[in-house]
Amino acid sequence: MYADYQRLNWQPTWHHDRQMLKGFVAYTTPALTIGVEGYINNIRNDTKATFITPPGAFAADTINTKAAGLSFYVHGNIVPNRLRFFARLDTYNPNKKIDNGTYKNYAAVSSPNGYGSGSYEATYNNTGGVASVTSTGDITSKEIFVTAGLDFTPYKNVHFMPNIWYNHYSSQMPGVSNGDYDMVWRMSFYYVFGK
C-alpha cells in the first residue's frame, strides 16, 4: 500500500489539493509472475464544469477530479533461460466524476494567482452540437493500454523482444466518436552490461 497528500494551491477562498492511494499485489514463482496494481487519485477543486443550461446562461462549477488506474501483468518461461513471454493490461480513467446529465463542458482549473492546477491540462467543449477536445490529455477520455511480446535470449545478457503496443481511447462524453486507437509493432533490443 502507498498513500500521499499534497497541497497544490492553498488560498483563503480556494483549496486545491491531491490525495493518492495505491495498492500492489503479486504472485511469483521461478517460472511465472502475476501481478495487479491500482490507484485512485483524488484532486480537490480541479475541474471547471459548465452546467447544462438554456442558451445564453454560462453557469459553471468547480468540481473534484477522481482519476483511477488499474494494471494487470504476467510474465513467465516458455523455454527456461531462452524464451519468455510477457503481457500487460492498463486501464485509466482521468476523471470518474463525469456527469453528462448535469454538465456539458469540462476544463482544467487555473488557480486564482494564474498558475495551472498541475493536473490534467485539457478542455472538452460540446457547444452547438459540435464536440471537440483541445489538450495534451483529455480529462474525459478513458484509455486501455495493452502490450504483449516474447523475450528471446540467444546469448547470456542479450535479449530480442518482438512486441506490440495497443492503446484504445473512448470518450465519456456524448457526441464524441469512440473506438479510436493506436497500434505499434515493435522490436526491442536489450543488453545487460556488467554481469
Fraction of helical residues = under 10%
Order of helices and strands: EEEEEEEEEEE
- Mass-distribution shape: elongated
**Uncertain stretches:** 121-126, 128-136
Beta-strand content bin: over 45%
Rounded mean pLDDT score: 83
CA gyration radius, whole angstroms: 21 Å
Cα-to-Cα separation, first versus last residue: 33 Å
Q: What's the structural domain tally? A: 1
User: How many beta-strand elements?
Assistant: 11
Biggest sheet layout? 11 strands, antiparallel
Q: Count of helical segments? A: 0
Structural class: mainly beta
SSE layout and pairing:
Elements: E1 2-11, E2 14-28, E3 32-51, E4 60-79, E5 83-93, E6 103-108, E7 122-127, E8 130-135, E9 141-152, E10 158-171, E11 180-191
Summarize the structure.
With 195 residues, the protein is mainly β. It contains no helices and eleven strands. It has one domain (2-191).
Describe the structure.
With 195 residues, the chain is mainly β. The chain has no helices and 11 strands. About 8% of the residues have low confidence.
